[in-house]
Amino acid sequence: MVRDWAPQTQAATFECADGQTVERCLKVGESFACDGDGFVLHLSNVSLGYDTACGQVFALYIVSIHFDVSIRYTRTTMLDFAILGLLMERPRHGYEIKRALAQLGFWTVSFGSLYPALRRLEKRGAIVASEGTGRRKAYEVTSDGRGIFEELLATDPDASETDRAFQIRLAFLSQLPREHRVRVLEGRRTKLASHLKSAREIFIEARTATQNPDPYRLALMEHAMRSTEADIAWLDGLVASERSIGSTI
Questions:
Q1: Which of 6, 132, 178, 210 is least enclosed, having the fewest CB within 10 Å?
Q2: Helix axes 178-209, 215-248, angle to 10 degrees
Q3: For the chain, what are the domain ranges?
Q4: Which of 160, 179, 183 has its CA nearest to residue 235?
Q5: How far apart are CA 176 and CA 85, in angstroms?
Q6: pLDDT at 15 over 90
Q7: Averaged pLDDT score across all residues of the chain
Q8: Is residue 67 predicted with pLDDT exceeding 90?
Q9: What is the pTM of this model?
């Protein structure tokens, strides 16, 4: 007789691109994202059978795990993306890259982080180094590097995209087609609107939950809401500008 058997979890071990080994017990249909790089482990293969002896449908788990490569803006990915974006403009040496990152206004990176990133990109074939003036190396993006950058830039952001990841994407957004730029901006606006709605609910609850709410905590919440409202208005302006440009073409 075939017995009804449907295990709920499966242990799995895999290695991320950065060498990190991860062990997880996942439920069927559950996904796990590796923090080190953009790999997602997903268990999904389940087959249905029919037990003729007892007339019951049973689920038989097939031990098969597939990896879905997903673009996720980890800290490493963001730095690589920013470097590639700057080298898309022109070749630069390490000091110029560091200075350009700082001039963007949202990234402070040490040489202890920059040069390992350059070596990582060079090893991947995304950039090449040549002798520059003095002992400085000049770095230039390769065709493979252009492909990596364009894929990262064109990937639609998801709900987990951080503020810094959005800022980096925005710095190079002009390289996307107008329709895609609008989609990125509207996606960001939707995310902020959802955050604002939740923040307002929390603020109302904090203000009415106690007789004497802390005024500075309320002020901090109100400041956060006003900042989000300002960001939404700013995004509305960017979207309006993109649409006006499109209407004149």
A1: 210
A2: 160
A3: 9-69, 75-167, 178-239
A4: 183
A5: 12
A6: no
A7: 75
A8: no
A9: 0.63
